[in-house]
Specification:
About 5% of the residues lie in helices and about 45% in strands. It contains three helices and 34 strands. The strands form seven sheets. The protein has a six-stranded antiparallel beta sheet with strand order 23-34-25-30-31-32, with no helix packed on it. A six-stranded antiparallel beta sheet has the order 24-33-26-27-28-29, with no helix packed on it. Strands 4-3-2-1-20 form a five-stranded mixed beta sheet, with no helix packed on it. A hairpin with a 4-residue loop joins strand 27 and strand 28. The two termini are about 15 Å apart. Bound molecules: beta-D-fructofuranose (FRU).
Length: about 525
């Protein structure tokens, strides 16, 4: 697309007089192209979006030889969901992205639904060699003809490999590697290497539960366990599982985490991602967890999974920043939807309960200008209004002990998004009822709620990242998180801080920082 723009603009300069042409070309190819590229209304400036057309789930997240791969559910013909391909982008820092050609196209076995990818270091599959180990993608085939015919076996699992670090892919001739007999929703395989048993372990979802399979070579799989029929949230089908191990805080204790997306049935409607903390013995997952836990309470973080082979041994998560309730209706024209910021996952024991935290990766700091910080105090029930040129590409960050306050971002059209922290109600709410364009779908303009029982007595951090069409809120470094899309008709430029308590309100180290664009 960028190249097309350059060609178009350069050919326009053809009409400029000869001596001027060179000069114009230089100006055109730099400033003008840069200012047009990725600058459409609502185009995220520092989140991943495809250049054009429809995108949903992140897929095949794997690191190899200095490159982070991001594949994604992609329909290259339209801005609504259609026959699925795997789109592809790469990054060296998980912040700046390079678009790549489509990696996987539908074939006679079906459309290419979600799945993962691994680096097969030991060449267990035999697709590569020890010197040049293959990347192996494991995905779901969705056979439309089967679905239309009313059969139940239309989702199966296939694999493909790449010997050139993701540039080209060969589908395995023995596909499907896991067939199906009668499970209608049977999809989204995610694979990991399980060192104790020296096996590959594949987790997939089968309607209302997860299933675990093991394999020595990524081709031949056997079912080893099932989890979840009677546990967790079941307001909709289970989708996009991910299974991995994490250390608990700074201790030596390790626990297994199972992510499960469900749609519908999320706490604020539509799509959401729950998690379970427990144990995995190489065959199945078990947990004592009684309550339902959500990774993100906002409406727009779905189908998120983590990187395989992450070089710093971190668990890095990316989610699809949308919700099936209105994903097809959002007011963008050239492309649809963005990914969340990449987030580091960590486990902590808070008030005796294992809690999964998610917080932006450290690299994000490289595109945030650290401006001055100041301490702000607001008298009992008072407020402070701060005006800016544009808040739509910014980070708001401060520390506070306060638990009753409100923060709203608004513009001259009186559109506003309001974040309220209320200790009295043990609740954080995010109100986007009057945040801008909301009428494209009746459920979009909602008030989203997040319980906050365990906020610390000491000062905790509030960090808010606003892009052209999204807000991500991290409270106490990823303990309480909300992600939501927003479509203001004009950038927000005013920030109102309101003290909702009888005490003086103190915000320490308050900073309003600019986030640079990544394109
Ligand atoms: C989740 C999901 C997956 C499926 C894919 C299809 O958003 O429904 O379960 O594989 O999207 O695009």
């Amino acid at each position: 697309m960028r190249n097309l723009l350059i060609i178009l603009l350069i050919s326009m300069t053809f009409f400029a007089c000869k001596e001027q042409q060179k000069k114009v070309e230089t100006v055109v190819s730099n400033d003008l192209v840069d200012s047009l590229y990725y600058n459409e209304p609502y185009r995220s400036q520092y989140h991943f979006t495809p250049e054009e057309k429809w995108m949903n789930d992140p897929n095949g997240m794997v690191y190899h030889n200095g490159i982070y791969h991001l594949f994604y559910q992609y329909y290259p013909e339209d801005i609504v969901w259609g026959p699925m391909h795997w789109g592809h982008a790469t990054s060296k820092d998980l912040i700046h992205w390079q678009h790549k050609p489509i990696a996987l196209y539908p074939d006679e076995l079906g459309l290419i639904f979600s799945g993962g990818a691994v680096l097969d270091k030991q060449n267990t599959s035999g697709f590569g060699s020890l010197e040049n180990p293959p990347l192996v993608a494991i995905y779901t085939y969705h056979l439309m003809e089967g679905e239309k015919a009313g059969r139940k076996d239309f989702q199966t699992q296939g694999i493909a490999y790449s010997l050139d670090n993701g540039d080209s892919w060969v589908k395995y001739e023995g596909n499907p590697v896991i067939g199906n007999t009668d499970i209608k929703d049977f999809r989204d395989p995610k694979v990991m290497w399980h060192e104790p048993s020296k096996n590959w372990v594949l987790t997939l979802v089968a309607g209302d539960h997860a299933q675990f399979y093991s394999s020595k070579d990524l081709k031949s799989w056997s079912l080893t366990g099932k989890f979840g029929k009677e546990i967790g949230a079941h307001g909709g089908v289970w989708e996009c599982p991910d299974l991995f191990k994490l250390k608990v805080g700074d201790t030596e204790e390790e626990k297994w985490v199972l992510l499960i997306s469900i749609n519908p049935g999320a706490p604020n409607g539509g799509s959401g991602t729950q998690y379970f903390i427990g144990d995995f013995d190489g065959k199945t997952f078990t947990t004592n967890q009684k309550d339902i836990k959500w990774i993100d309470w906002g409406t727009d973080n779905y189908a998120g999974v983590t990187y395989d082979n992450e070089p710093n041994d971190e668990r890095i998560f990316i989610g699809w920043m949308s919700n099936w309730t209105y994903a097809r209706d959002t007011p963008t024209e050239k492309w649809r939807s963005a990914m969340t910021l990449p987030r580091t996952l960590s486990l902590s024991k808070i008030d005796g309960a294992y809690t999964l935290l998610n917080y932006p990766i450290d690299n994000l700091q490289n595109i945030i200008s650290e401006g001055e910080t100041k301490d702000i105090s607001i008298a009992s029930n008072g407020n402070e209004i701060l005006n800016f040129k544009d808040l739509n590409q910014s980070e708001i960050r401060f520390k506070t002990k306060a638990k009753n306050f409100q923060l709203s971002l608004s513009n001259s059209l009186k559109e506003e998004v309001i974040l309220t922290v209320s200790d009295d109600e043990n609740m954080v709410t995010l109100n986007r009822v009057n945040s801008g364009k909301t009428e494209f779908q009746e459920d979009f303009g909602s008030i989203q709620k997040m319980p906050i029982n365990e906020l610390p007595e000491d000062a905790y951090e509030v960090r808010i990242l606003v892009d052209q069409s999204s807000i991500e809120i991290f409270i106490n470094e990823g303990q309480h998180v909300m992600t939501a899309q927003l479509f203001p008709n004009e950038p927000y430029n005013s920030l109102i801080l309101e003290n909702l308590s009888e005490d003086e309100l103190l915000f320490n180290d308050f900073g309003l920082n600019k986030v640079s664009r990544i394109w």
